[in-house]
């Protein structure tokens, strides 16, 4: 399994727009065979940092998702929506592997 970990710097005045973006991506990742673990929005502390995590069974499955989403009209619609909203100022993406119980 591989997990994609995203740290976002967001515009705190556009939290509703970012939350809409996140809800849409949860459904899309799941539709493409991933397991989205959710978006985590600011509550206490920094008002401009958010996180998201989702997993795929393998790196090959993740790479297939990337190819398929690049050609998917609904995914492109969400990308375009975010370009207009500009709720995301920047993001960092890391890939992790879990340590599981034997």
How many runs of DSSP E, i.e. beta strands?
A: 4
Overall geometry comes to: globular
Q: Considering DSSP H and I runs of 4 or more, what fraction of the residues is helical?
A: 40-55%
CATH third-level topology: Alpha-Beta Plaits
Distance linking N and C termini: 15 Å
Sheet-strand content, in percent, reads: 25-35%
Question: Which CATH architecture?
Answer: 2-Layer Sandwich
The run of helices and strands is EHEEHHE
CATH class: Alpha Beta
Question: What does this 3D model show about the protein?
Answer:
The protein is an alpha+beta fold and 102 residues long. The protein has a single domain (2-95), classed as Alpha-Beta Plaits, CATH 3.30.70. The two termini are 15 Å apart. It has helices at 15-31, 59-70, 73-85, and strands at residues 2-10, 35-40, 49-56, 88-96. A four-stranded antiparallel sheet has the order 2-3-1-4.
Short account of what is shown:
With 102 residues, the protein is an alpha+beta fold. It has three helices and four strands.
Which terms would index this structure?
Alpha-Beta Plaits; 31% strand; 4 strands; 3 helices; alpha+beta; single chain; 102 residues
Spell out the blueprint of helices and strands.
Blueprint: E1 2-10, H1 15-31, E2 35-40, E3 49-56, H2 59-70, H3 73-85, E4 88-96
Antiparallel strand pairs: 1-3, 1-4, 2-3
Helix pairs in contact: 1-3
